[in-house]
Specification:
The complex is a heterodimer.
Chain A: H1 2-22, E1 27-30, E2 36-47, E3 52-55, E4 68-74, H2 77-85, E5 90-100, E6 107-108
Antiparallel strand pairs in A: 1-4, 2-3, 2-5, 4-5
Helix pairs in contact in A: 1-2
Chain B: E1 3-13, E2 20-29, H1 37-57, E3 61-65, E4 80-84, E5 91-93, E6 108-112, H2 117-126, E7 129-130, H3 142-147, E8 164-171, E9 174-179, H4 187-192, E10 196-199, H5 201-208, E11 216-223, E12 225-226, E13 228-237, H6 243-249, H7 252-259, E14 267-272, E15 282-291, H8 310-318, H9 325-337, E16 350-351, E17 365-373, H10 377-390, E18 396-403, E19 416-425, H11 428-443, E20 448-449, H12 460-481, H13 485-490, H14 494-498
Parallel strand pairs in B: 2-4, 3-4, 9-10
Antiparallel strand pairs in B: 1-2, 5-6, 6-11, 7-12, 8-9, 8-11, 13-15, 13-16, 14-15, 14-18, 17-19, 17-20, 18-19
Helix pairs in contact in B: 5-12, 8-9, 10-11
The chains are: A alpha+beta, B alpha+beta.
The complex binds flavin-adenine dinucleotide.
């Protein structure tokens, strides 16, 4: 029976480690013909297993009137450790985005 | 007012996080909606001039910013006013009566300085035209890319600044329209842009590559060629050491015949692992130019090999796994590259702009390079790789080719140039290994120059020695544009002062 306990513990550890590693993946989404401005980022913390979410700063960017060019979603190592240590109750995620400079039609000089 | 303030004083970090401007006040220059380009740039230039005067009155230095891509920190200045230009990005076609007699207006386009190279490429393609060269990515602004002499590996072309035919540049004392002696735009057009004409070959050659030290570039007239198609071939091949002799002699056809198509290539690039460069397969990229036809099968940027620059490739792998550097290099090269269209794959085609992309942000990269006389390649390249690897340099080494580029401060100053790039994850050992390469080149008496945008350990003495008489002519042009020493200091920064460009 002892070995079964160890095997389950190893499996559990592997599952948690897998989540820890995969959670740091950088998910990147971009529009087709981007004209990016500087990257900005904020941390959104999902609370109570996703029942509530709170951004550390409001979602504003001074230059976003032409929309966004791309968005990256990822967790840092520290953010993943917080998620694991709180059994997923707190799940901080970083969202980084670049606003769009806009594409204006060709004019006449 | 096309200039808006972005928030309060704070920090701004450049694209590769190699430098931070502390206590910076950020402003953005934005395009307006004037019906004619000349009216729009007249309004913008006047606002920029007023802004410069205000900055001087506030005792702040200024720094114009493109995409912030230069890891050499020529885009960094603390306690300064920063001017973001990427939203000043309209392009305008030029009519025959806007130019001087004998000038082909159809080949020219008026570009606001913050337009990305990608935008310029797209707008030219709309008119059946194309740039003839650019860098490995196209997310720089046109003015920013030209400011540092950005180049690609089109073997018969120079730098991106070679496309420029006229420049509108603003200083606290004036709005100047700089062209070569022969002139390009009509006097009436120049007057309508609110600028004073300055037709002078040396001045023009200075502002083609200003390194951000001559004023704020607000607009450029960019020349183009008829649109063309390129067929990429991209493969991993073990390259024979003897092939370096062919490259050094400019026998690109023979190199292409050995490793890709038996045709004259227009673009040749080789990326090697400096640990045994001729024993391990190198990543080769060739482009073959063909006349334009509308019915070519469209390919995605990925199929055309976009993102082929060593930065993207290595950043993806080694940014995340710094402990695995040496051995992982070859694996990374294979994974990131093998998918390109090889000789026996069905051919894919694209326009010049379609084969490039705007890049996604990657921090902690090291970029440096040396530009040498191509004739020195055969005896220099192996030595460079050996020294770099021996001292722990852990990036790939890229070899690119170009002809002499325009601009007094163009690093590509040999008749035929080979550029050796060191691009990859940043570490002190890699930076030290690059420094050892420089020492060795000096010890061997090999002439070389360095890229203004990269982490190339340049200083004022070396700049003056490398560029000699051209540097003196560039400084003379600077004194004409900015006769007041206080105005020259306005464009200074720790880095530019250190290069001897602004003090
Ligand atoms: C992913 C990547 C790929 C690259 N590939 C290549 C390559 O293939 N070949 C190559 O040669 N280089 C390459 N580079 C270097 C790059 O091309 C240069 O750093 C270029 O100068 C960046 O342009 P930018 O618009 O970001 O300018 P910035 O870095 O913002 O500015 C560069 C300089 O120009 C000045 N400047 C900018 N705009 C103006 C203006 N309107 N008026 C006056 N001065 C201005 C700035 O003050 C600064 O001194 C690459 C860099 C990156 C990050």
């Amino acid at each position: 029976m002892m070995w079964l306990g160890w095997a389950l513990a190893a499996l559990g550890f592997a599952m948690v480690f897998g989540q820890y590693a995969a959670g740091q993946a950088d998910i990147f989404l971009s529009i087709a013909n981007p004209r990016p401005l500087d990257e900005e980022a904020m941390v959104v913390t999902l609370k109570g297993w996703g029942f509530a979410s709170a951004a550390a700063q409001p979602f504003v960017t001074p230059e976003s009137d032409h929309g966004l060019c791309d968005v990256r979603v990822f967790a840092t190592r520290r953010q993943m450790l917080i998620g694991i240590a709180t059994f997923g109750f707190l799940r901080p995620v970083t969202i980084a985005w670049r606003a769009h400079a806009g594409i204006l039609p060709l004019g006449d000089a | 007012m096309p200039i808006v303030k972005l928030g309060e004083e704070g920090r701004w970090t450049n694209y590769h996080c190699t430098g931070t401007c502390d206590a910076a006040t950020r402003f953005a220059l934005r395009s307006g909606d004037a019906p004619r380009g000349r009216d729009e740039i007249a309004i913008a230039a006047k606002s920029v001039q007023d802004w410069l005067v205000e900055a001087a009155a506030a005792k702040r230095r200024v720094r114009p910013l493109g995409a912030g891509w230069s890891p050499s920190n020529v885009n960094i200045s603390s306690q300064s006013w920063l001017l973001h230009t990427r939203r000043f990005n309209r392009c305008f076609r030029i009519n025959a009566d806007d130019v001087r007699p004998g000038i082909d207006a159809g080949a020219l386009m008026l570009v606001e300085a913050g337009a990305l190279v990608d935008e310029v490429s797209d707008k030219l393609e709309e008119q059946g035209r194309s740039l003839w060269t650019s860098g490995a990515g196209n997310g720089q602004t046109f003015a920013g890319a030209a400011a540092t002499g950005t180049h690609g590996s089109m073997i018969a072309a120079g730098g991106i600044q070679d496309h420029i035919r006229a420049v509108q540049i603003v200083t606290p004392g004036g709005i100047h329209w700089v062209e070569p002696d022969v002139g390009v735009m009509s006097d009436a057009f120049i007057a309508a842009t609110g600028s004073a004409p300055l037709r002078d070959d040396a001045m023009f050659a200075a502002v083609q590559l200003p390194v951000g030290a001559l004023g704020i570039v607000t607009a450029l007239v960019v020349e183009s060629v008829p649109k063309f198609l390129v067929r990429p071939i991209q493969n991993l091949r073990k390259v024979d050491c003897a092939a370096l002799d062919w490259l050094a002699e400019g026998d690109f056809r023979r190199f292409s015949a050995a490793y890709a198509l038996d045709q004259d290539p227009d673009f040749v690039q080789m990326i090697v692992n400096p640990y045994k460069p001729f024993k391990r397969p190198a990543m080769l990229r060739f482009l073959y130019r063909e006349p334009w036809r509308d019915d070519y099968p469209r390919a995605t940027p990925g199929q055309l090999g976009a993102g082929y620059d060593a930065l993207s490739l290595l950043g993806r792998f080694l940014n995340d796994y710094p402990w695995a550097r040496g051995a992982l290099l070859q694996f990374a090269m294979k994974q990131g590259y093998a998918s390109g269209p090889d000789v026996d794959a069905p051919p894919v085609y694209g326009s010049w702009g379609e084969g490039l992309d705007t890049h996604r942000p990657l921090a902690d990269l090291f970029n440096a390079s040396v530009t040498i006389d191509r004739a020195d390649l055969a005896h220099v390249f192996e030595m460079v790789c050996a020294v770099y690897a021996r001292h722990g340099g852990s990036t790939v080494v890229t070899l690119r080719f170009m002809e002499r580029a325009q601009g007094l401060l163009a690093p590509a100053r040999f008749a035929h140039n080979a550029v050796i790039d060191f691009d990859g994850p940043r570490s002190q050992r890699t930076a030290d290994a690059y420094a050892r390469v420089l020492e060795r080149l000096d010890a061997e008496g090999v002439a070389f120059t360095r890229h203004w945008a990269k982490s190339c350990r340049l200083d004022a003495l070396r700049v003056a020695a490398d560029y000699g008489e051209d540097f003196r002519r560039w400084r003379a042009a600077q004194r004409r544009l900015l006769p007041d020493p206080a105005d020259r200091a306005l464009f200074g920064s720790e880095v530019l002062d250190g290069l001897g460009l602004t003090c």
